[in-house]
Design a protein that fits this description.
With about 220 residues, this protein is an alpha/beta fold. Helices cover about 40% and strands about 15% of the residues. A 7-stranded mixed sheet has the order 3-2-1-4-6-5-7, with helices on both faces. Helix 1 runs antiparallel to helix 7. The mean pLDDT is about 90.
Length: about 220
């Protein structure tokens, strides 16, 4: 029996549209490649969760490009409206009727422990909403077992102070929290991830291999 769906919020990896805050330290081409590796590793993580449907929600103009980069068996659905908040609303509206419990995550969380996703579904058994808080005041995960169209008003995923806005919108609903985690927004975040993946590359193998190749390239240039 399917327990629910995990919806990965994504954009097609293109220069200037993904992880732009990393371009202060890395080339746009490198950032695009990193974004693709992280998306693929995030989806591999999601698909390793038993009895869960994996899906991607993205801008409608990105559907064909993202589908061409992904393995078979993953729903890629174009959102209604523009922006991440509209994408979140679309994700819940499209998947809650089919799978009841839906958890949305960002596309750059390949390092997320599987136990956190497991706990999100467990918490939804007794709560209306589940939130995964980030260390910077945002959130990396949000789940619900019903559609709440105003839940994401002024509360886009992953931005500073977004969690406070989300919780304000969730007044009257029961809310539970998963373990605090971090996402990759700025170079310091990526350095932190790279250090962790050097120790345990199997957590996100594509991302780990790419970051290792960058280290090798930098060493060659320095030599």
């Amino acid at each position: 029996m399917i327990r629910g769906a995990v919806v990965v919020m994504a954009k097609a990896p293109r220069e200037g549209s993904v992880k732009t805050r990393l371009t202060v330290a890395y080339s746009p081409a490198d950032v695009v490649r990193l974004s693709e590796c992280m998306l693929l590793d995030t989806l591999a993580l999601v698909r390793s969760l038993p009895r869960v449907h994996a899906a991607v929600v993205c801008p409608s103009e990105d559907v064909a490009e993202i589908e061409s980069r992904l393995p078979a068996g993953i729903d890629v659905v174009g959102q209604r409206g523009n922006g991440l908040a509209a994408g979140l609303v679309s994700g819940f509206e499209q998947f809650v009727p089919r799978f009841h419990r839906v958890v949305a995550v960002d596309s750059d969380s390949p390092h997320l422990p599987l136990a956190i996703l497991e706990s999100a579904f467990e918490l939804l058994e007794t709560n209306d909403v589940v939130v995964g808080p980030t260390e910077d005041g945002g959130y990396y995960l949000v789940g619900a077992s019903a559609t709440h169209p105003h839940l994401f008003d002024a509360a886009p995923l992953g931005t500073r102070d977004a969690r406070e806005a989300l919780l304000s919108n969730a007044r009257g609903l029961s809310v539970a929290f998963t373990e605090p985690w971090y996402d990759v927004d700025v170079p310091a975040d990526l350095r932190r991830l790279a250090a962790e993946l050097r120790i345990e590359p199997s957590r996100a193998p594509r991302t780990a291999a790419l970051l290792e190749s960058w280290d090798a390239r930098d060493e060659e240039l320095a030599g």
